[in-house]
Amino acid sequence: MFYHIKELQYNAKPSQPDPVYAKKLQEILGGQFGEISVMMQYLFQGFNCRAEAKYRDMILDIGTEEIAHVEMIATMIAQLLDGAPANAQEEAAAQNPAVAAVLGGMNPQHAIVSGLGATATDSVGYPWNARYMIASGNLLADFRANLNAESQGRLQVVRLYESTTDPGVRDMLSFLIARDTMHQNQWMAAIEELEQTQKPIVPSTFPQELEKQEVSYAFMNFSKGEESAQGRWANGQSIDQQANFEYIAKPEAMGQVPQLQQAPAYIHNSPMPGMNPPALDQANYDQPGPIM
To answer: Residue ranges of region Disordered (predicted)?
Structure first.
């Protein structure tokens, strides 16, 4: 059960309208690493969690907080759009808010579609979609995805902070930046805890003897130069402590030369050199195609 209270988690009060900045702010609302993404990602991870109760509770705690962040940013966007378009660019624009929106650089859908409100889209109007979210059921894999989401999200909020001088907007963004600091620490702590009870390679439950272990710890140089040989990933003990890294300066091909068979006649591919494509008689065309 969810329970809504009227007060926002933190203030979302711009000092003045700014419809162009409202367009930019859409990125941390409906973008790939925006608040809608992490909200949905954490909620579905929590809903589907079959692990120890403390993990489900923690995931739903942060997922519910992200609902509050969505509300905060949507409220900020709506207030930034108050009075928009802020200035008439020319006589025609003064009589047509949509024209003024385009000329002024704001998102015209804020005037046409949402009635000066936030939309579930990114900063260029691309709609949010569920493919942005990850909820695999493997907590270590999911928590690493969560750490990436919070890292990218905090980076974007910081960039938006740098692109405005509005003290009210900066105040809200400073709160979100601080919460992203906590959330990155939270996921790192959870990852560390999980790695103490299982191998760090996901999934840890797959028998390693079934993989091609000859290449399990080999770093292969597939580019000109050997600067990559100096990295931690190419020397010393592997992170999972199961072997030592090996550096292969000139990896060799280990597979066969691909040779595909001639496609059936009904596919109408180009014939292979030296081969005549099998003929199709009228009876073939009287029957439905096998792949249609």
So the answer is: 270-292
